[in-house]
Amino acid sequence: MFAEVTDFVPVRRDETFELASDGGGRFALANARAGRRLEPRYEPGADVPLELRGAGQASRQINNFCSPEGFDADRLIAVEVLTPAGNWSFYPPHKHDEEVPGRETALEEIFCFEVAGDGFGYQRWYASGPGREIEVLAAVRTGDAVLLPHGYHGPSMAAPGYDLYYVNVMAGPGERAWRFRDDPDHALIRDTWAGQEIDPRLPMAAAPGRKT
Fold first, then answer.
1. What count of Cα atoms within 13 Å lies in the side-chain half-sphere of residue 154?
2. Domain annotation covers residue 81
3. 110 and 146 in contact (C-beta within 8 Å)?
4. How far is CA 165 from CA 46, 67, 68, 86, in A?
5. Which of the four pLDDT bands, split at 50, 70 and 90, describes residue 176?
């Protein structure tokens, strides 16, 4: 999780498959409703595009193994996120939808967490609706999963002393796109990054054979 970028294998719709490894390993199976039946393939971690986002204590690493920009898929978007101890990721808070009257455009998300050193982190989610406000701040540990059906989320917080990793999986109707919309109350945070350096602990993980 923290040492290497993942390999991944997209599987065709309506396909039966068997997963095996002589050396063992950790596996995540992400899926979404699909209309197209794409060809299966193997994608090694060495070919996965890496991205460093944010600055200062909002620095994090994104491994774009199944992002819209990185690899073709029908609906599914999936990335790995690594956040150094003490940093915040998915910040400023944002959501993934568009304001289209009468049409649902939100992407549902699942976060699956790993925390270094048997530590802990936090995940925040909030939303509003007619006559109600919802806010959840959940402690997360290795093996925890958090479902974010709609609304704003962030930050994902790595406690000091404990690096944070999660697989972020999302899908929804319509175009396969991020549709980022910052919470307007906190969007100004991006302006504070000007002149700040990326956390020197990044990148935290690469892959064997990667050219740097």
1. 22
2. yes
3. yes
4. 19, 17, 21, 13
5. confident
**Is residue 178 included in any domain, yes or no?**
yes
Residue with tokens 């719709």: 13
Mean pLDDT of 66-79: 86
The pair of structure tokens assigned to 96 is 């993934």
Q: What is the per-residue pLDDT across 99-147, written as a single tens digit (0 to 9) for each?
A: 665 555 678 899 999 999 999 999 999 987 666 688 999 999 999 999 9
Tell me the chain's radius of gyration from C-alpha atoms. Answer: 17
The residue segments making up the domain with residue 147 are: 50-193
CA distance 19 to 93: 36
φ and ψ at 67, to 5 degrees?
-90, 160
Fill in the amino acid letter for 198: I
Between CA 148 and CA 95 the distance in angstroms is 10
Query: The CATH number of the domain where 174 resides is what?
Result: 2.60.120.10
Alpha carbon distance 40, 53 (integer Å): 30
**Residue 29 covered by a domain:** no
Instruction: State the pTM of this model.
Output: 0.88
Supply angle C-alpha 54, 192, 50, rounded to 5. 10
Taking alpha carbons only, the member of 117, 119, 150 closest to residue 136 is 150
The conformation of residue 134, written as its DSSP 8-state character, comes to E
For residue 56, which amino acid is it? G
Query: Quick one: pLDDT band at residue 161, thresholds 50, 70, 90?
Result: very high
CA dihedral over 170, 90, 9, 39, signed as positive or negative? positive
